[in-house]
Structures are given as structure tokens and as C-alpha cells.
Amino acid sequence: LTSSGIDINKEVCGYPVSIFFIVVNEFCERFSYYGMRAVLVLYFKYFLRWDDDMATSIYHTFVALCYLTPILGAIVADSWLGKFKTIIYLSVVYAIGQITMAVSAIHDITDSDRDGTPNNMTFHVVLSMVGLFLIALGTGGIKPCVAAFGGDQFEDHQERQRRTFFSVFYLCINGGSLLSTIITPILRAQNCGIYSQQKCYSLAFGVPAALMLVALVVFIVGSGMYYKAEPQGNIMMDVCKCIGFAVKNRYRHRSKQYPKKQHWMDWAEDKYDKLLIAQIKMVLKVLFLYIPLPMFWTLFDQKGSRWTLQATNMDGNFGLLVIQPDQMQTVNPILILTLVPIMDSLIYPLIGKCGLNFTPLRRMTVGMLLAAIAFICAALVQIEIDKTLPTFPTSSQSQLKLLNMGSNPVTVKLPGYDALSLPAAQTDDLTSKPQEGNNAIRFVNGMNTTVNVSTPAANFGQIVPFSSSNYSQIKNGMFTFKLWSGSQSCEYNREFGYGSSYTFFIPNTLVFGSTCQESITVAEDIKPNSVHMALQIPQYFFITAGEVMFSVTGLEFSYSQAPSNMKAVLQAGWLFTVAIGNFIVLIVAELAKIPKQWAEYVLFASLLFAVCVIFSIMAYFYTYIDPTEIEAQFKKSVNEDDEDDKSKKLQKTEVELVKRDSINSHGEEDKARQTKM
After folding, report:
1. What is the DSSP track for 565-581?
2. What is the pLDDT of residues 11-28, one digit of tens each?
3. Structure confidence by residue, pLDDT tens digits, 211-255
4. pTM (2 d.p.)
5. Burial of 8 per CB tally in 10 Å (0-12, 13-18, 19+)
6. How many other β-carbons are positioned within 10 Å of the β-carbon of residue 530?
7. What is an example of a GO molecular function annotated in this UniProt entry (predicted)?
8. Contact 121, 49 (CB under 8 A)
């Protein structure tokens, strides 16, 4: 019983009541994190107006921080606050970060001229960066604590229930990820605002913020039912201190006059237990294999950045269903839930029956190859997309616009260029493809009178004779445009796809009536997105299959090759490789500046293939061990040494006793002689 009289051992169906609060907390937290992350790169590109490279760089910097902070969270929980307080305090930080992100996406705060664009972008950038830092600190800090805290709630006789809990726990992670990457892009695609309607990033961030608050409240409600273990000290700190002492001691004894040791960690024997040193040696052997691993994560985490940006130039119309660019990420959790049981129950057993020794390191190698193939697929898709894109002038070029408003073709001769035939009613006047899959529309008035043009989605205003309106952005679908001049009017209907640009010419021969469908001339400035989003499915399949073979197998291999008390060290090392992989994306995006996106995909695929070859060589020379058996033999050896020491001490004691007896007997004889004399 707790001090308030609550029974912390209360069970339902054999499970502690407390774990139900932990499971709900994890689902809400994962929904919050993945929901925010799903729309993040588009928020950078379309709200903060960053280019693709800048958006990609900041996105991967954030992801890297999310995988560095778990090390800090584990140390704080194990050495100072304990898991419960660490989860509470950092969840508060986490929730504040999510709320800050939601506020940063409200464009009306600084939109003083009410045109839908923030006038003080610095305010929004600073607020979003603060929010992302707090989120990284919160989500990373609680990451190593929640699962372990849930495991602490079970007693020794509840091993089966504990295993079931972890299965449900990781199901909640994938469930939260799947639902959030479906829902938040839908929220983002809505229009909202006080003075002007824009894409609703504030709602897309606000819902995850609300879910994080729910997660925090649910966790606090179960407070009285938790078993809260006291901090026991963090093994990572002990490992770091031992390694540091070994390095310093080796440096102090670098002279040739000192005898060499079999392993450089043996220099720590002056201060640390031999068993701890032996365990660290086993961990270092696995960590050495981690060196090439960051390159896999370099490719894997780009599905949330580069691949999402790629999808913005694709057609997401699947008939009854229209997929948003950031919703394509849902293919990953769906395939994970499908491929994991297929791999475990079908693929791996079939490979075993074929007589092939498909070791964990070989699985990881194949996983890296699959990820490289995924990026080759992405490059092929990008080449197809590039074929549909117009050629725009670079920063060092200029572009001359020619507009033929007549009804007949016109031949134009420019100095230094061949004669150009300009068809009737045709022009090109954009320097970039319309954003977010919208369509850029404008009207050119060739009449002698002013014409008004409007549609429910946009108002083109009054267009004076022989001039054009500004471009207006409209979504896909069927639209009806109303044209009127004075008391005369007509309607024009047009269906639009994704990412196109059109110029509509109003000829001087236009006759107003019920419809002007045949009179309006259309010039397609930029073709709509014609490469279907379904072409991304193969690259998602290969990257997910690679994840299953690489990530799941890698953790399984690592845990099997390390002592039981060193699992946290390997977990920290594994998360560190993810962080380094994201920093590599940052470096390439900012320094390489490869002009063609398909070429960057090929570069990453080539780098991973080269790293895969190196890793396969390292794996070939790796010898699998059984840490439990080695520890048992080591303890037995230490016990035998202790027994030998005890035996020697006992023999020494017996000799001393014999000597004392001999001395005593001689003394008695002398006394006898003296008495006799």
C-alpha cells in the first residue's frame, strides 16, 4: 500500500492496473511526435518559405537531436530523478514545445496587412526553433524511460505478462505512428485563419499538442498505482569512467619500460573490477561494428524529408481517395506491421531450409542493400518527374516573356536567336512550379472594356483592357468562373489537376451569354503533375524491408552479444548511430549542393553500397560469442583464483602455527633445563 492507502499491486486479468496508464500514455505520445514530424518539412517549405535544402537540413538536425537526448534522459533517470519524475518533468517540457510549435504556425499573429503571409517571419522562425528544441529534449529524454518503467511494474512471477506488455507497447508505437501520419496531413490541408484563410499548420501541430497533454494527464492520474524504483546509478557512467581511466593509465605508461598488456582496457585493472572490464571488452567489440551503420539511417530518415518533397510534384489522386504528399509516409508503418510476421514466419525459415546460414550480420548487410535499391528507385521516379517540369531561369539568367494576344501565330526574331513561332494565345510567365499541388491561374483581357472574373476559390478582380490579372492559387477539382462586364456576364467551367499553371485569354470577339465555354482560349504554361504517387510504393517497400532486416535484426544481434547489464550501453550506441546518420544528410544537403535531385539519390545509394561492402568484410571476420557463458567462465576462474589465494594463505598460516609450536616447545624445554639446573 502507498501512503495514501492505494494498493499498487492491484491487478486486472493478471496485469498490474498501472500498465494501462502507461500504454495509453505511450500511444498518445507517439501520435503527438509522429503527427508533428509528418508535416514538419512542408511547414518549413511552405510556411517559413525555406528552400528544399534548408528545410531538409533543419528537419534532420531536429531528428538527430531526438536521438541524442535519450542518452541524457537515461543518465538523469538512473542517477538522479528516477524514471517516474524524469517522465513527468520532461513530458511537461515536451508539451510546452508542442504548444509553442502550434502557436508559431498561426500566420495571423504577424499578418498586419491581412494578405495571408506573415510580415515578421523572424518571430515564427524563432518560436518554431524553440519549440523543436523543447520537443527534442522531451521526446528523447523520456524515450529510454517509459518502456523500462512499464517493465518495472511486473513482479518476477509475471514474466509472461511482461512479454505481452512489451508486445502491446510496441504495437501502440506503430499504431500511434500510423494514425497520426494519416490524420495530421488531412488537418494541414484544411484552410483556417482569422483574417485570411491559409493551410492550417496550426491545427496540424495543435492536435499533437493536445494529445501530448492527454498523455501527461493520463500518466499523472496513474501516479498512485506505480511501483517507483529508486535510482540505482547508470551503467553508462561506469563504463565511460572505466574507459577513461584505461586510456589515461595507458598514456601514463606509454614508455617502453612498461610491459605491454593483451588489451588496452586491461590498463583499468588497477582500479576497476576484472569482470566489468571483460564486459566492456565484449561491448566494444559490438560497438566497433556500429561504425558503418549511420549511413543506413542517412537514407532511411529521408522518407520524411526528401521523399515527402518529391511527392509534392506527383499526382495523389487514387480515384475515391486523394493522398496528400505527407500521407505517403503511412506506407512505412503499414508495411512494417505486414513484413515483420512474414519475415519471421516465412522468409527466414525458407532460407534456413535451403541450407543457407542467414546470420544476423548477413541479414543486416542485405537490409543495407535493400535501402540502397530504394534510393535507386527514388532516383528513377525523380527522373520521370523532371521530364514534366518546365525549364526555369537560374539566378544568373534572365527570362523574356512573349505574349501573343492575337488569333493567328506570330513569328518573332530575336538578335542572336533563330526565328521563333509563337502560337496564338500562348504565354509562359512563372519561375517556379505552383506549391503544395495547387494550380496557378490568371486571365488576360483582350477586350476593349474592363472585365471582372471570380470563382468561389479566388477573386481575380477587375482586369483592364489588354492586361492580365495576378496569379491565383486554386486546388484540384471542377471550378466555375464567372465573367462579367457591366450588366453582361457568362460562365466558364474547367477541371484542374495538381501543380499546373494556366493562362486564360478573353478574346475581343467574346459574346456574353449563358456560357463562354467555346470563346475562352487556354494556354497551358506548366503541365499538371502527371507522375502518379503510386510510383513511390516500390521505394517505400524496399526501404521498409531493409528496415526490418537491418534495424530489428541489429538490435536482436546487439543484445545477444552483450552482457545483460550492458543493454543500455548498446541502446545508447544504437541511437547515436541514428543521430550521426541524420547529421550526414545535413552535411550533404548544405555542402554538396547537387543541382539534380536524382543525382543526389544516386550518390546516397552509392555511398551506402560502398559502406555495405565494408560492413560485410567486418562481419566476415566477426566471431559470435555467448556473453552469459563467458561471464560464467570468468566468474569461475576468479573464484578458483580466490580459492588458490585462500589455500596459499591457509598453508602460510599452518606454517606459522607450526613454527610457533616449535618455538613454544623449545621454550618449555629451556625452562625445564633452567629449573633442573
Report:
1. GGHHHHHHHHHHHHHHH
2. 777 788 888 999 899 999
3. 999 999 999 998 888 888 887 777 778 888 899 999 998 888 888
4. 0.81
5. middle
6. 16
7. symporter activity
8. yes
